[in-house]
Amino acid sequence: MSRELVTPQHIQHWLSDRINGDHALLDNGHHQHVSAPVKDKPDAEGCNWRVAAWRNPAGYESVIETAVDEARARFNLE
Per the structure, how many domains does the chain have? Predict the structure, then answer.
């Protein structure tokens, strides 16, 4: 599967929308800050970015992990 080449801001906004739109966060009034991804060497799957840090993800790790996994399969940084 080929990945769409996008800007860091595109990935950041996509992740923010996906994570903060999850019912677990909405129901608890939690807002998860998403940092812009940084370019990295392509991994074994060919993804060339990562999010370096997360602020206060406690209790929402599975929501974040699911969104990041989906984004890493869909996007690469330009």
Answer: 1
